[in-house]
Amino acid sequence: MSAPVTAPPALEAQAIRKAFGGTVALGGVDFALARGSIHALIGENGAGKSTLIKVLTGVHRADEGTVRTDGIVRHFSSTDEAIGAGIGAVFQERNLLPHFSVAENLFLHAPPRRYGFLDRGRLKRDARVWLGRVGLDMSPDRMAGTLTPAQGQLVEIARALALQARVLLLDEPTASITEREATVLFERLRELRDEGGALLFVSHKLDEVFALCDRITVIRDGRTVLSNIERTALTRGDVVTAMVGRTITVGERRTEHAATPAATGSPRLALRGVETSWGHRGIDLTLHAGRIVGLYGLVGAGRTELARAIIGLETVTSGVILAEGRPIRPRSPRAALLAHRIGYVSEDRKGEGLILSHPIRHNAGIAIWPRLGGRLGLVTPSGERRAVSPVIDGLAVKYASLDQDVGELSGGNQQKISLAKWMASDVDVLIIDEPSVGVDVRTKEEMYGVIEALAARGKAILVISSDLAEIVRLSDDILVMASRRIVSSLPNTGSYQVLSETIMHAIVGAEAPLHEEG
Amino acid sequence: MPADTSAGARAWLPLLLVALVCSAGFAVLSDRFLTSFNIYVVLSSATLLALIGYSQLATLAVGDFSLAVGGIGEFTGIVLGYLLHTAGWPLLPAIVAAIAVALASGVLNGLIVVASGVSGFIVTLATGGAFAGAALAITETTPYTGLPAAFNFLGTGRVGPVPLAIVTSLLAAALLGVLYNSRRIGRLMLAVGDNPEAASLSGLSRREAVLWAHSLSGLLAGIAGVVATAQLHEANPTAGTGWLIQSFTVPIIGGTLLTGGVVSVFGILVASLILATINDGLILLDVGPYWVTLVEGLLVFFAVLLGRTRLRDLLAHVTARAATGRLPESGAVQR
Ligand SMILES: Nc1ncnc2c1ncn2[C@@H]1O[C@H](COP(=O)(O)OP(=O)(O)OP(=O)(O)O)[C@@H](O)[C@H]1O
Ligand SMILES: [Mg+2]
User: How far is the C-alpha of A179 from the C-alpha of A175, rounded, in Å?
Assistant: First the structure.
């Protein structure tokens, strides 16, 4: 017996098929993950990326095909068995126990024990170490239910790292974190690779893919279209073409920017010297009809909390909010919507934006029920379908039927439904928090088109985003928030390079003194 | 007490105040309230209430329900009555055997839930009825009386105002406190109750948690059945009639979440004491039994309000800020 010339892949999938009822999610996918490499898995929303990861980790059982680790055939029937075989994963959806501490969430699979009892001292010490590795400085005693989506994502990444698995599968780990946190994460991933780890990385951010990954696999409609190709042999154009199945151009920034009429009349919504219980100070912000304002900042800068204060979910302690020049103080999102026609698309789609066990048409139509109701106030399924289907098709949602539960859609498609809900509604002011988290490159363009069309119809729009490229692509004006203040306000010149340097400078300048205080 | 630090688990704190105010009121209004015997009566019924509450707490922890608490309690009492009365078994083996039957009933519930995938609510609706029916069939509705004096003493013996039986509820509290705080199984049950999806994706077994929860619930219902039998001096097949409502009232007042994942072991002791006090006081004041039920209902309502309102969230927010000295969101490092 001679030793094999090359070692078998750390993890390998062959001819995997998986269908959910009539929907074929995977129609024969081949995939191999080698030791000492970071492998990108790319595909449009609904292509089957998450399903493949779930098959590889025993969450789903494949209808056909085989999974091997180090050449040995495996039939995982639970994540427990996959973890046992050295495979760790961060799934696309957040999976934390809200009433458990961050520390316990980190070591859920194998908490430290002493004489059979949970060792809380060691739990906390170990937790600090792993939190530090992903750049999180928070008390390990914090309840996971109080974390923001970005913090939750980082905690889950830390949890996967703490498993110290040889194979790590990451499903859109950077979806809700900013570049800065991602940079820390990438350092860790490169270390793991250099130690011989096998990593799978799913992302819709091609910049990241090209900066981080060694190999690329692209799937489309549940089939492999580019299999295990060296990154250096591919261009972005190749990858996008493979994903989409045809050649498309991905826009740089809105070209019709010059056509946006200058602001006239009183602003739709204005904040003057607003302070909140969250610590915002002296916030000035002006939203004009037909214009898009981008609010950029790092995770934790306080952007979401400002939006929540505008719609009455946080307390405004001083300053004024003006709608069409008149002071308002909405007490609830409902009041903001009905009395002042202000809509807010939450960044926490799953927690706040969608009812997963309800059909697509319900979820997309929920904000327009008052309008849909006929003379008797009855909302009929067909009325609902008629009202929501144009919007849903405009966002290229991949679904089997409008009566399908939203929970069955892929992550990115769920995202689109929560946006569709507000696009269908008739508001004057729309605040959109992280519009394109988890949305593929093609749909991103379509989504931007929809947002621009809304602005063109006279709506005033505030886009909150941690993706600077997105801000530059969409906004007429850019605001930068750091430590709950607006530290910079600039017109969009369209030059990504110049803007990004100016903005980072503003953020660093604003934050440095705060750190010294703390 | 870490299992009691999570949201909702401190809902009993204001209730302690309610209990003190009520007690003071009753003491002023009735000179029979603060007597040694009356305190014994209150502690006795609080003991039984706490055990009934713990039996339900066990299933609530995993986000499930048991409607079989009363049925298992009655069935256990009748098995015990039969062994002591008809079969003439000695005390200790009879008690152990009866509790083993209760445990087996709980395991059966758990196995059915896990194997069928049907919710515990429906499964125990059926099995609970079956256990209660079996108790009635065995006795043909006639209670076993004339139980050994030593056994009756366990139920109604007292040292001054303190009933001997209180040992059972205090011991249950101590053991459950350790279980839910520090033991793998306890944390597993709470994890599954808190977010079943997340727990399962982290490699934890939902089936294991649910099986344990129902088994534990059966065991505790059995202990309640034994205590009830000893307190009554008879094994009565209808002893558990009112237990169903009580089994939910006590944990809810105590701050255990109906949705799972958060239990308050200590809260059960406080809640059972309050219910027993109010019940006793109202009877001493000659308030009709229907009014007692009404007051209990209102109490549950206020407990839930106190436990779940924004007022509490606000307090939690303020204390969190005071504790860390900074705003919650600034936890993410920005360098
Ligand atoms: N539990 C389910 N029931 C029914 N259909 C499902 C289920 N899970 C996934 N699907 C379908 O399988 C297909 C692939 O979904 P998957 O989540 O793998 O996509 P994805 O590539 O991860 O997309 P995204 O980029 O949006 O996360 C989709 O059409 C989706 O609707
Ligand atoms: Mg996905």
Answer: 10
The DSSP element (H or E) to which A37 belongs, if any, is strand A37-42
Please state the atom number of ligand 1 nearest to the C-alpha of residue A92.
27
Ligand 1 test: best mutation among A209, A220, A406, A410, most atoms within 8 Å of CB?
Answer: A410
pTM of the full predicted structure?
Answer: 0.83
A92 lines ligand 1 (CB under 6 A): yes
**Domain span at residue B202?**
5-334
Asked if residue A140 has its Cβ within 6 Å of ligand 1, the reply is: no
Distance set, CA B149 to CA B144, B145, B146, B232, B233 (Å): 14, 11, 8, 12, 9
Chain B residues whose beta carbon lies within 8 Å of the beta carbon of residue A120: 2, 182
Contact between residue A203 and residue A174 where contact means Cβ atoms under 8 Å apart? yes
Pocket test for ligand 1, best of A408, A414, A441 (most atoms within 8 A of CB): A408
Phi-psi region of A97 (alpha: psi -120 to 50; beta: other; left: phi over 0): beta
Give yes or no for a contact between A200 and A171, defined as CB atoms under 8 angstroms apart: no
CATH number at residue B117: 1.10.3470
Domain A253-258+265-341+427-518 belongs to what topology? Answer: Rossmann fold (3.40.50)
Determine which of A97, A159, A185, A305 to mutate to test the interface with B (most B C-beta atoms within 10 Å): A97
The residue whose C-alpha atom lies closest to atom 19 belonging to ligand 1 is: A46
Q: Is B310 buried (19+), middle (13-18) or exposed (0-12) by CB count in 10 A?
A: exposed
CATH topology of domain A11-96+147-244: Rossmann fold (3.40.50)
Q: Is the CB of A47 under 6 A from ligand 1?
A: yes
Q: Which residues of B touch A300 (CB under 8 A)?
A: 329-332, 334
A363: its two tokens: 């979820």
Domain with CATH 3.40.50.300 in chain A: 11-96+147-244, 253-258+265-341+427-518
d(CA B254, CA B4): 10
Give the residue among B192, B247, B210 at the shortest CA–CA distance from B54.
B247
Pairing type for strands A316-323 and A269-276 reads antiparallel
For chain A, counts of helices (H) and of strands (E): 17, 22
- With beta carbons under 8 A apart, name residues in chain A contacting B190: 99-100
* 8 A C-beta contact, residue A333 and residue A312: yes
pLDDT digit string (tens) for chain A, length 518 residues: 444 557 889 999 999 999 998 889 999 999 999 999 999 999 999 999 999 999 999 999 999 999 999 999 999 999 999 999 999 999 998 899 999 999 999 999 889 999 889 999 999 999 999 999 888 889 999 999 988 888 999 999 999 999 998 999 999 999 888 778 889 899 999 999 999 999 999 999 888 999 999 999 999 999 999 999 999 999 888 888 898 887 665 544 444 444 455 666 778 999 999 999 888 999 999 999 989 999 998 777 889 999 999 999 889 999 999 998 899 998 888 888 888 899 888 877 666 678 888 888 888 877 776 666 666 666 677 878 888 888 888 788 888 888 889 888 988 888 888 888 887 777 899 999 988 888 888 888 888 888 888 888 888 999 999 888 888 889 999 999 988 999 989 888 877 788 888 888 888 777 654 433 32
**A51 Cα to chain B: minimum distance (Å):** 14
Total domains present in chain B:
1
